[in-house]
């Protein structure tokens, strides 16, 4: 594994984590809005 490969993998994982967090947050806000 080269440094570039490790860098690309870590950036990809970071993007996936941010994407999941954004989806979870927006879903929670949407559910709160629906129930109010």
TrEMBL record:
Annotated YiaAB two helix domain residues: 2-31
Alphabetized Pfam families for the sequence: YiaAB (PF05360)
InterPro entries: YiaAB
Protein name, per record: Inner membrane protein yiaA
Organism encoding this protein: Escherichia coli
The encoding gene: yiaA_2
């Amino acid at each position: 594994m080269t440094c570039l490969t490790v860098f690309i993998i870590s950036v990809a994982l970071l993007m996936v984590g941010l994407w999941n967090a954004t989806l979870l947050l927006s879903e929670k806000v949407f559910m709160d809005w629906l129930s109010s």
